[in-house]
Design a protein that fits this description.
Distance between the termini: 49 Å
Strand order of the largest sheet: 1-2
Radius of gyration: 16 Å
Order of helices and strands: HHHHHEEHHHH
Structural class: mainly alpha
Helix content: 55-70%
Shape: globular
């Protein structure tokens, strides 16, 4: 039972941080709608069952079953995850990444920063979201333009701080 309370507290703190970041990024509606599916039974029950408080319960569920049912549900309903943006490519005859609309890249930036703050706690630095992103680059199936855009914002965050990053992001309306 304490895992359910811990998980609820963690996802709610995360959602609140994302909302604050989305306000700063100029996308308040995305902040309000962010991760509502985490409160659904399909995501909340496995999240509570595999809750640790120091990392995503999806990782623990994946270790246990070889996949995460909560993640499968989540990524299919939340457009701020690049995994949502895949489609059949008639040229390659394969499923591949699709370029994300900028408002969802902004939300993804806010999500990654908030997750780093929640899981790193007092150890959080503005470099952490960039380091986490770069560690996974080799195995990530994300559209190259989306990847480059997100990474450029994470670099601004790492080098110039949160205020500079949000100031820059608010000005961006489309891929340049």
């Amino acid at each position: 039972m304490s895992n359910a309370f811990g998980h609820f507290y963690t996802i709610t703190r995360h959602k609140h941080k994302v909302f604050i970041h989305c306000l700063k990024a100029g996308i308040p509606l995305r902040g309000l709608l962010h991760d509502l599916s985490k409160y659904s039974m399909a995501e909340f029950v496995p999240g509570a069952r595999f809750y640790k408080g120091t990392s995503s319960p999806n990782e623990a569920e994946r270790e246990n079953y070889g996949y995460s049912s909560a993640w499968m549900h989540h990524k299919g309903r939340n457009r701020h995850h690049f995994e949502y943006w895949t489609d059949y490519n008639p040229q390659t005859k394969r499923v591949g990444p699709v370029r994300m609309p900028v408002k969802f890249v902004k939300e993804m930036f806010c999500d990654r920063m908030a997750a780093s703050k929640i899981y790193q706690g007092k150890n959080y630095t503005h470099q952490h979201p960039l380091e986490y992103f770069q560690r996974g680059m080799a195995n990530r199936s994300i559209h190259p333009e989306t990847s480059a855009l997100l990474e450029s914002w994470l670099i601004i965050l790492a080098e110039q701080g949160e205020n500079a990053a949000f100031r820059h992001i608010r000005k961006i309306k489309d891929y340049e």
